[in-house]
Task: structure prediction
Amino acid sequence: MPEDAPPPPEPVASPEPKPAPKPQPRPEPAVVPVAAPQLKPKPPSRFDPARIAALIDKSVKDTLPPAPDAKAQIEAAVKRSQTSSLDARRMTASLVAVARAQVERCWNPPLGAKNIQDMQVVLLVQFNPDGSLRTAPSFDAAVKARIERDPFYRTLAESTQRAVQRCAPLELPRESYEQWREMRLVFDPREMVN
Result:
């Protein structure tokens, strides 16, 4: 038996970890007041809505043909009224022309639209005796069908509706109300261009 065996090694104690040094408080930087940057004053705006409106109003007056004397046309149409159906048809056509002339002053057709020279809109309008709209203007079947497939035509058709709504109430003779309470107005942009 070997007696010369070395004694078992003694466990080595690991060194104790040193405590982490306490963080030193950082000195707070001195707060230096910062002066607000000096803004240059804005120059007065050159945009003047009143001036622009006056220019637009002037340009509209310069481009529109003189408005026909609606009352004189109406009185003339009423005076021409006779009992015969031919005269009644003529008076109705005259009243439609007077109404259309009033509405055309409020109409802004999209003159730059593609193929506008091939477009014509038929608008069905119902009036109250005072010339105001009884219902919103509507389109006949052919116009409705074309509106569905042609966006340029839709734009033109909608512009005719807006024109009638903008110009209402129309100045038409109450004594002839039965003849103009329902009208079929035809809008043709070619007539506006020429």
About this structure: The first helix runs from residue 49 to 63. The chain has a mean pLDDT of 75.
